[in-house]
Amino acid sequence: MSGEKNGLLASLRAEALKSRHAAPVRLAVIMALPMPLLGAMPYLGHQSFSAWNYWYTLFLPVTLSLVAACVAQADARVRMRGVLSLGVPLARAWWAKALWCLALLALSNLVVFAVYLVGSAFTSQGLTAAGTLTMLCCAGANTLTASWMIPAGLFLTARLGMLAGIFCPLAVQVVGAFAWSVIPLPQLFPPSATTVIPTSLIPVLPSGEPLAADMALGGALAADGALTVAGLVVCALAFVGLTAATAAWFARSEER
Questions:
Q1: What is the 3-state secondary structure (H, E, C) of the chain?
Q2: Crossing angle for the helix pair 129-146 and 225-255, to the nearest 10 degrees
Q3: Across-strand partners of 218?
Q4: Do 95 and 243 contact (CB within 8 A), yes or no?
Q5: Tens of pLDDT along 144-188?
Q6: pLDDT tens profile 57-88
Q7: What sign does the CA torsion over 94, 98, 99, 101 have?
Q8: Hey, what's the torsion of the CAs at 8, 13, 18, 19, to 10 degrees?
Q9: Taking the mean position of all CA atoms in its chain, how far away is CA 89?
Q10: How many CB atoms lie within 10 A of CB 158?
């Protein structure tokens, strides 16, 4: 058990070193800044959370698809020599890639959270524990709901190339996010969960409008806490299941 843990940590360190001065970390930080900087500063003492909605609906999927493709392509360019030289099982190395991308996804969402947290200090209410916790929970929910894109992007990049790794998961995510209203239980479908679940946390409708624009719709989406929790569980299982399946494929394909 200790050897497995050490092997995973070694692989994670290798992924971090490869990305330290490369595109993935820069993308995770820079792409997270435009929308929060435009919307987090309060107007007349109040913050607008619509910019946060545009972040997780549009900017986040683009960022994550680029990050996952860059992480996968870094080894594909050198025919996986870096992964093979680590001397750890290939499935474990694949998990390290997925977990490193998950860490970068969390970093992006924490950047958005930090910008809004600073902005909230200048509102009429100021910094509050409840507001800080709500925004932190939203950042965590955004990380979990979008995580399915990571193994999908890694697999498609390794199997079909960078364009497939970027655009296929991105297309599914964006279409699913905007099709939430025609899906019977959108909280349980990861692409639409990314749009719907934050409605139970921050006062923004999936359309990007304030919750007050349609209290009936917003109330219906936010009322059922059980569906929200179930949706987060489904998203976590989607990440784990897709990563396990693609790790098994990677191990077989590279060992042959």
A1: CHHHHHHHHHHHHHHHHHHCCCHHHHHHHHCCCHHHHHHCCCECCECCCHHHHHHHHHHHHHHHHHHHHHHHHHHHCCCCHHHHCCCCCHHHHHHHHHHHHHHHHHHHHHHHHHHHHHHHCCCCCCCCHHHHHHHHHHHHHHHHHHCCHHHHHHHHHHHHCHHHHHHHHHHHHHHHHHCHHHCCCHHHCHHHHHHHHHHHCCCECCCCCEHHHHHHHHHHHHHCHHHHHHHHHHHHHHHHHHHHHHHHHHHHHHHC
A2: 40
A3: none
A4: yes
A5: 999 999 999 999 998 898 999 999 999 999 999 999 989 988 999
A6: 999 999 999 999 999 887 765 555 555 555 56
A7: positive
A8: 100
A9: 26
A10: 24
Q: Say what the pTM is.
A: 0.91
Tokens standing for residue 89 = 């099982």
Tokens 């939203």 correspond to 138
Side chain identity, residue 244: A
Distances (CA, A) of 146 to 99, 128, 195: 13, 27, 10
Rounded distance, CA 253 to CA 256, Å?
6
- Return the residue matching tokens 């929910």: 141
Residue 172 makes CB contacts below 8 A (sequence gap 6+) with 152, 191
Q: Which residue has the tokens 């969402």?
A: 109
Q: Which residue is associated with the tokens 């030289």?
A: 85
